Amino acid sequence: MREEGYISPRQAAVLLWFAVLPTAILFLPALLALRAHQDAWLSVIVATLAAGAVALVVYLLAQRFPHHTLFQYCELILGPVTGKTVALIFVLAFFLLDAVVIREFSEFLVTAVMPETPALFFSLSIVAVAVYAARNGLEVIARCTDFILPLMVTFIAIVLLFATPEMAPRNLLPILENGFRPVLGGALVSWSFLGQIFILAAYGAFVNPPRALRASLISGLLGIAFFLSLVTMGTILVFGSCEAARLTFAAYALARVVSLGQFFERIEALFLAIWVGGVFIKITINLYVVALGLATVTGLKEYRPLVAPLGALNVAMATLLYRNISEIRHDLLLVEPGWTLTWQLILPLFLLVMAWLRGKRRTGI
Amino acid sequence: MLILIILAFLVIAYLDAPKLWQKKYWRELAVMGIVWSLGLALSLALALNLPVPSPAKLLARVFGPVTEWLLRLIG
C-alpha cells in the first residue's frame, strides 16, 4: 500500500529528530548518569556512531528498493509468507514502541506535574489528537513539525543558556575516571533511543528525491546527537553525576533551576507545553507507521480506517504495559537495549544480507 | 466506566465503518474489525481488573538476559 504525497529531505530529517528526541531528552540523561557518571555525554557520541550502522543499513536498503516502504520490501526480499511474518514483527515492534511512548508521556505528567489526575486521561487526550493527525497523512505530520521545531530548538537553547550560572565545569572531571567500560554501558542505554532512527525505513519511501535520503539520515542523526549530548552535558554540569542519576526527569529539572534575577524563573510550564508538542509528533509518526504497516501486510487499499482502532488499542496497551514509572526505568535500563538492538539492527541487517544474496541470484538468471 | 468504554469504541467504529460498508471494502472492514475487537476486549478486561499478562513482562523474560549478556560483554 502506498500513499500519495511526498515530503522533502529536510522534513524527513526533522521528523527523525522528533522520532527520537522528545522522550530521549527527558529520560536519557538520568539513566546515562547512572551508568556512565560524568562521562555520560561521551556515551551519547559512542551511541551515535553505533546508530550510524542503522542509518547505513536503512540507506542501503532504500537504495535497493526506492519508493518502497520497509513493509513492502520485506515481502519482496523474503517472499510472501516469511516476508509478511517479518513485516508483522516490525509492525508489532513499532506498536509496542508507541505504547511505551504514550505511557512515558502520561507517567511523566502524572509523576512530575499533576499527581491527582488519572494517567488514562493524558494518554486518551494525546492519542485522540495523534489519531486525528495520523489520519491526515505524512505530509500533514511533516508540516506540524515546521511549527513545533523552532519552538523546541529555541527553548532548549534558552534553558541551556540561562542555566549556565548554575553550571560547574568541575562536574565533568575527571574524564574517563573508570576507563571506557562505563561509557560503553551508557552507550548501550542510549542505543535504545538512538536506534529509533530506524523508523526512517518505514517512511523513507515518501522522501522526494529518494537520492537525498542520505542527507536526511546524516543530518537527522547529527542533529539528534547534538541536542542529546548538549542536554546531557548541561544536566551533568548543573547537577553533577550523582544528583543527576537520582533525578527521573533531568531536562525538566534543568528547566526548573533556571532563575534570572527575580523575574525570569519557573519556565518549566513553558517546557511542558513545548515538550507535549514534541511527544505528540513522536506518537503520531509511530501511529502512522503502525497503521501503514498493518495495511501493507494485510494488503489493504487504505490505512486510514485502521488509525482510530489502533490508537484505542494503543491506549489500552499503554495502560497494561507497566505498573509505574520505576518499572519503565528498569525496562529502559535492562530490557530495551537488547530488544531494540534485535529489531532495529540485527533484523534489518538480516534483510539487507538476504537482499544482497537473492538479488545477486536474480540478476544471475 | 464500562459504558464509557463501549460508547468510545462505538464512536470509533462510527467514524469509518459506514463509509467502508458503502464502498464494499470488505477486507478493510475485516482488518479494522479485528483491531477494534482486540482493543475493546483489552479495554474491558482492564476495566474489570482481569489478570491480563503484560507484553513488557514477556519482553523482559526474553531480552533481559540478552541485555545482561551485552552488558557483561562491553561494560
UniProtKB/TrEMBL annotation, chain A:
GO terms for cellular component: membrane. It is found in: Membrane. The keyword Membrane applies. The chain crosses the membrane at residues 12-34, 40-61, 73-97, 117-135, 147-164, 184-206, 218-239, 269-294, 306-325, 337-357. Keywords: Germination, Membrane, Transmembrane, Transmembrane helix, Transport. PANTHER family: SPORE GERMINATION PROTEIN A2. This is Spore germination protein YndE. It comes from Moorella mulderi DSM 14980.
UniProtKB/TrEMBL annotation, chain B:
Keywords: Membrane, Transmembrane, Transmembrane helix. It comes from the Bacteria. The chain crosses the membrane at residues 29-52. This is Uncharacterized protein. The lineage of its organism: Bacteria, Bacillati, Bacillota, Clostridia, Neomoorellales.
